[in-house]
């Protein structure tokens, strides 16, 4: 794991486990793009047959790591 800071202000109103549709809504992506991300190596999701579960905290950590990887800078969270 990297030494990036963990998300500070995780919105506790967001469920701890998300469906693909819920995760897409939370991060502002379309459902099809979210399904595409679940097939990406390293994306944090759990598959149980056809069901896909995305842990909230792992999703936010993954977003932070992707932002760092793509920009070289950690994102600032309000």
Short key terms for the protein model shown above:
78 residues, alpha+beta, 3-stranded antiparallel sheet, 41% helix, globular, SinI_DNA-bd, HTH_17, Helix-turn-helix domain-containing protein, DNA binding
Question: What report would you give on this structure?
Answer:
It is a single chain. This protein has 78 residues and is α+β, with helices and mostly antiparallel strands. The chain has a domain at 17-70. 41% of the residues lie in helices and 13% in strands. The chain contains three helices and three strands, in the order E-H-H-E-E-H. It has a three-stranded antiparallel β-sheet. Strand 2 and strand 3 form a beta hairpin. Helix 1 (20-27) packs across helix 2 (31-38).
Query: What's the end-to-end separation, in Å?
Result: 24 Å
The spatial strand order of the largest sheet comes to 1-3-2
The amount of beta strand, in percent, is 5-15%
**Structure summary, number of beta strands:** 3
Helix run count: 3
Instruction: Summarize the amount of helix as a percent range.
Output: 40-55%
Radius of gyration over all CA atoms, rounded? 12 Å
Biggest β-sheet, characterized?
A: 3 strands, antiparallel
Domain Helix-turn-helix: 18-66
Protein name: Helix-turn-helix domain-containing protein
GO molecular function: DNA binding
InterPro entries: HTH_17, SinI_DNA-bd, Tn1545/Tn916_Xis
Give a quick precis of the structure.
This protein is of the alpha+beta class and 78 residues long. It has helices at 20-27, 31-38, 56-71; strands at residues 17-18, 46-48, 51-55.
């Amino acid at each position: 794991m990297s030494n990036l800071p963990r998300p500070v202000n995780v919105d506790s109103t967001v469920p701890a486990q998300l469906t693909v549709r819920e995760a897409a809504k939370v991060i502002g992506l379309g459902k099809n793009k979210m399904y595409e991300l679940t097939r990406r190596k390293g994306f944090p999701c759990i598959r149980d047959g056809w069901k896909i579960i995305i842990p909230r905290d792992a999703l936010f950590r993954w977003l932070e790591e992707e932002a760092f990887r793509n920009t070289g800078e950690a994102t600032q969270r309000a």
